[in-house]
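Shipment paperwork, digital attachment
Item: protein structure file
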Amino acid sequence: MTGTDTAADPALFVEQWRILQLSHLGLSKQQVATALVDEIDYHDAAVLIEKGCDIDLALAILRG
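Attachment content:
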């Protein structure tokens, strides 16, 4: 097993999926990092951003 073996580490797989999905929403690397640290739910972010909410505002809303 390697250090990046996502098949052996489901948590790593989920984290990589979240990074990819947040990036596809248009978040910068810094915004993705902030979303991960703040444990922002991808689905909640997607709803706001896809409805036209500014990314920074969406992240602020979801931080609560």
